[in-house]
Each structure stands twice: as C-alpha cells, then as structure tokens.
Amino acid sequence: MTINGYIHKELNIKVTDSDITTDIETALIEQDSTMVGNFREHSVSCLASLGGKREIIVYLPSDYYTNTSKKYPVLYMHDAQVIFRGLAIDNEWKVDNAIETYIKEGKTQGVIVVGLKNTGNRNAEYCPWQFYDGSESIGGLGDEYLDFIVNNLKPFIDTNYRTKSDRENTGIAGSSLGGLISFYGGIKHQDTFGIIGAFSSSFECKNREIVKYLEQIPNKYSSRIYIDAGNNEGYMVSDANLVYDKLVSLGYKSDNLKKVIDPTGSHTISSWQKRFPDAFLWMFDGK
Which residues pair with 137 in a beta bridge? Predict the structure, then answer.
C-alpha cells in the first residue's frame, strides 16, 4: 500500500511449494508524484546463474485496496526499470498511466503488472539459444529465466495478490530481446501464459531460430498474440511479418493474432510507449 509517497513495507515472506522455496525481501522505494496506482517492490531469490536475487516491481490498480473482493489479470513484463512512469531517468513506457487512463474511461477493469528488473546479464537471460553475433555472446539463460518466472515468481504473486491465475488471464510482454523471450516463453509455457506481447522483437537471433521452434511446438490453445515493429527498424519489419505468417500457417486463430507495423516507429522506448495502450487494450480486453 502506498503511504505518504512510499511503498508500504512488508515483512519478509517465504513461499515453499514442494521443491520450490522462494525468499522475498522488501524495501521502501520513493514513489514519484507522476506515478499512478499502487506499487510494491520485492527482492526474490533465484538461481545463482541468474544472480541469486531478482528485483521485482509490482503495479496494482488504483482500486486494489478499496475493492477488496476484486481479482485481476496479471501481465509479466521485463526491463522493469523503464516500464513505469517516474522510475527511469530519461524515458519510460508509462504502462501504469495507460492502464489507469483506461480504468477511468471504463475500457478495462485493470490488471496487475509484475515488472522484472533486468541485470547486466540481460542479453543471456532474454534469449534461450546461445550464439555469438560477431561482437558478443548472446543467450543461453532464457529457459532458466522463464522457469524462475513460471515456477517461483508466479506462485508468489498468485499467493500474495488477488489474481486471476488461469492462463487466459496471464500475459507476458516485452520489447527487443524482451519481446523475443516473451514470445518464446509464451509459446513454450502455453499452460501458464495465454497472452503474449512481442514489441519490436529480436526474432533474428541465431538465424531466426524462433521460426524453427514454432514448428516443433504443438499449438494447444491458439494463444492471444500481439506482434509489432516500426518502419524504421529495418529487418524487424520483415521478421515480424515472417513470424506472423508462420503462426497463421500453423493454424493459430486469426482472431487471436494482431500485427502492427508502425509507419513512424523506431527501436525506442518512446515508440513502445506510443503503441502500448492500444496493444494492452487488445490483449486484455479484446478491443
């Protein structure tokens, strides 16, 4: 709960579920005056290969503490440092502002957004396949990162917040490599995620291995999938078209697919900020 401009401090929490034990530490973080809704921050234990702990920021809709019988869908997002207004130095997606605006307009009932902060190992964690791109090593920890979200973080969120925990109300989204790991994770973990938001995704990784992967994984549910790119992003436009066409050819329902090519879009936070509101409304409210 937000009190006097700060995040409410909770006691440390430990979630134990058979073989999974997750330690949660909390901290007070100052809430910028431009931030809307309610925010909590947690430090969640994870594998040593992922850094041992992961910082999590949770956005709760403004009515969360007043409408205490209400449950909410959940959207898991990467790069938490830049998705909420008031946290980044230069620019943000302003996800909280977009959702709060739609709540006031009666266009959505709201969602809980769980933002995972990135680390210095972002390039390894946001791609499942390890390869060398000519200048640096990319990928290799994507599956471990996703397993942490599915097996550790999500049970904690569902236990401690009022969530709609079924796959139809659980999404995963991000941009660039964050878009790639969201798309891959949503396809791999179809039983967990029914909604995918892939913004300007790095589908080119390891010679577009994601296309081959799609061919190997049965389409169990025809998840709701949003894909976009900006006209100023070069090959990312053709890659977005390639992946979209592959989904169609594999029998994914057209009503559950949406592709947007932004005529003025670039590989920037400001472009994703501009496209997020409409994408969000389509992903969660079908509009």
Answer: 132
Whether residue 228 is contained in a domain is answered as: yes
**How large is the greatest C-alpha to C-alpha distance in the chain, in angstroms?**
53
What is the per-residue pLDDT across 241-284, written as a single tens digit (0 to 9) for each?
Answer: 999 999 999 999 999 999 999 999 999 999 999 999 999 999 99
Domain span at 172: 14-285
Kindly state the average pLDDT of the residues 16-42.
57
CA distance 258 to 58: 27
User: Which of 210-213's residues contact partners 24+ apart within 8 Å by CB, and which partners?
Assistant: 210/180, 210/183, 210/184, 210/243, 211/242, 211/243, 211/246, 213/184, 213/187
- pTM: predicted TM-score of the whole model, two decimal places: 0.88
Q: What is the CATH number of the domain that holds 136?
A: 3.40.50.1820
- The DSSP bridge partners found for residue 230 are 262
Q: Which residues contact 46 (CB under 8 A, 6 or more apart)?
A: 52, 53, 54, 148, 152
Please tell me the number of Cα atoms within 13 Å of 255 on its side-chain side.
4
Using the 8-state DSSP alphabet, how is residue 176 labeled?
T
* Total number of domains constituting the chain: 1
Q: What is the pLDDT of residue 88?
A: 52
Residue pair 71/162 in contact by the 8 Å Cβ criterion: yes
> Is residue 49 included in any domain, yes or no?
yes
How many CA atoms does the CB half-sphere of 267 hold within 13 Å? 12
